[in-house]
Amino acid sequence: MKRVDLIKEIAAEFELIANRLSETEVATVASVVELEPQHLAEIAKLAQKLTGPKNVKLKTVIDKSLLAGIIIRIIEEFGALFIKARICPSKGGDRFQL
């Protein structure tokens, strides 16, 4: 069992190094339900705009403790950025409102 835990730690460290080398920022998106691909694409664009010219990789988490909306967590080298948003219907489709 200890070997399995060690492999998980090695994989996590490898992912951190690979992301750093490829200038990829990982953003965690928490929501009550699974988000549609178009919503994830819009979130990725927003995260990329906030982090600069870096690539963005999204990890999604279902969080049943949320009542509505989403929480986006972006960790950069010198701090963290938390964004709370909600999905609002509009003429051109659903949009996020921060």
UniProtKB/TrEMBL annotation:
Transmembrane stretches, start-end: none
Keyword Ion transport annotated: yes
Coiled coil: none
Main localization of the protein described in the UniProt heading: membrane
Locations listed in the record: Membrane
GO MF annotations in UniProt: proton-transporting ATP synthase activity, rotational mechanism
Keywords: ATP synthesis, Hydrogen ion transport, Ion transport, Membrane, Transport
GO terms for cellular component: membrane
Record's keyword annotation contains Amino-acid biosynthesis: no
Domain of life from the UniProt record: Eukaryota
Protein name: F-type H+-transporting ATPase subunit delta
Organism in which the protein naturally occurs: Salvia splendens
